[in-house]
């Protein structure tokens, strides 16, 4: 039987965290390629991107496999597209470098150890493997296959307005609030740096979140004279603003910059890599994770698109009143279109039989890679804004971003299980 009273902790990291800098660059590249494809008249469904970024002191390395429009390819003096020894077209690095610099600048890095203008950027992107392409691309009667094998999980819980677990939801909200204050350049938060981490321990009573017992925040600051106590005076009002009223009590324990000074931050203080914050990106440890990262991948990669679909289905199940909590697992094989399995766990909160719901989910949404991309309209430049503060629990945008957060399947789901 599930415990009803307990403590649970989740962490988040800001957009200036070294790993998040890399996620941002990788996703800005995804967006740029989709924009270029549209301008060039290339079918966006043909775009392929698997872009990994590494960042360290004044150095960024971008690597991976891509299929991009000709406007992003290198040409010789006669204007012909250049190819490598394997016959794959060569990528022109200039636009990719520009995208990376703009991303670093937007985050706010203008420090001696990591500056958007002076850091060295190496672009090591090359053409997608033909062996992978033959399994993923459609041909004849073969539908678009999954870009990789794997398992993906979606989760939703009736704990916050966005049906996300409370610990990760509020860990994100603390950092979003502080980042907005820092970027406004007004007030005491202007002395904070881009790199930060938050962590909240939430107390549950009768299965519902009711308060926080521990708050952890480590944030970079540009004034090296500031003490931990000084930093707490700056950040505490923003943290209180981010959390629900009454959640902070006299017994709440604060850990603000517990190691003391935090001036050297970002990739200058610690190397960053794309895809190294998968629990921060999803449910903060409150739900299973299939292991696949999101950023830098086009939506043929089911690591990304099927995880979005699973969240979409779980959120609609809870929004439809069919359960208070829902975990959904999907599984795929590379080159195979249909999911191998659909699994539902309603955690003893369901109003409908789980086996019946599994069949209903397959009826209300086409869960092939093509079906997911079409239903959620994913072949768009909507990914950079997902790279920090979570891929879930966000408001769906007019530009098509966070379409997987909509609850427009409620009516169809209710009808399918009736």
TrEMBL record:
<protein>
    <recommendedName>
        <fullName>Methionine adenosyltransferase</fullName>
        <ecNumber>2.5.1.6</ecNumber>
    </recommendedName>
</protein>
<dbReference type="GO" id="GO:0046872">
    <property type="term" value="F:metal ion binding"/>
</dbReference>
<dbReference type="GO" id="GO:0006556">
    <property type="term" value="P:S-adenosylmethionine biosynthetic process"/>
</dbReference>
<dbReference type="InterPro" id="IPR022630">
    <property type="entry name" value="S-AdoMet_synt_C"/>
</dbReference>
<keyword id="KW-0554">One-carbon metabolism</keyword>
<dbReference type="InterPro" id="IPR002133">
    <property type="entry name" value="S-AdoMet_synthetase"/>
</dbReference>
<dbReference type="Pfam" id="PF00438">
    <property type="entry name" value="S-AdoMet_synt_N"/>
</dbReference>
<comment type="pathway">
    <text>Amino-acid biosynthesis; S-adenosyl-L-methionine biosynthesis; S-adenosyl-L-methionine from L-methionine: step 1/1.</text>
</comment>
<feature type="domain" description="S-adenosylmethionine synthetase N-terminal">
    <location>
        <begin position="6"/>
        <end position="130"/>
    </location>
</feature>
<keyword id="KW-0479">Metal-binding</keyword>
<feature type="domain" description="S-adenosylmethionine synthetase C-terminal">
    <location>
        <begin position="264"/>
        <end position="406"/>
    </location>
</feature>
<dbReference type="InterPro" id="IPR022636">
    <property type="entry name" value="S-AdoMet_synthetase_sfam"/>
</dbReference>
<keyword id="KW-0547">Nucleotide-binding</keyword>
<keyword id="KW-0067">ATP-binding</keyword>
<dbReference type="InterPro" id="IPR022628">
    <property type="entry name" value="S-AdoMet_synt_N"/>
</dbReference>
<dbReference type="GO" id="GO:0006730">
    <property type="term" value="P:one-carbon metabolic process"/>
</dbReference>
<comment type="subunit">
    <text>Homotetramer.</text>
</comment>
<dbReference type="Pfam" id="PF02772">
    <property type="entry name" value="S-AdoMet_synt_M"/>
</dbReference>
<dbReference type="GO" id="GO:0005524">
    <property type="term" value="F:ATP binding"/>
</dbReference>
<keyword id="KW-0630">Potassium</keyword>
<dbReference type="InterPro" id="IPR022629">
    <property type="entry name" value="S-AdoMet_synt_central"/>
</dbReference>
<dbReference type="Pfam" id="PF02773">
    <property type="entry name" value="S-AdoMet_synt_C"/>
</dbReference>
<dbReference type="InterPro" id="IPR022631">
    <property type="entry name" value="ADOMET_SYNTHASE_CS"/>
</dbReference>
<keyword id="KW-0460">Magnesium</keyword>
<feature type="domain" description="S-adenosylmethionine synthetase central">
    <location>
        <begin position="144"/>
        <end position="262"/>
    </location>
</feature>
<dbReference type="GO" id="GO:0004478">
    <property type="term" value="F:methionine adenosyltransferase activity"/>
</dbReference>
<dbReference type="GO" id="GO:0005737">
    <property type="term" value="C:cytoplasm"/>
</dbReference>
<comment type="similarity">
    <text>Belongs to the AdoMet synthase family.</text>
</comment>
<keyword id="KW-0808">Transferase</keyword>
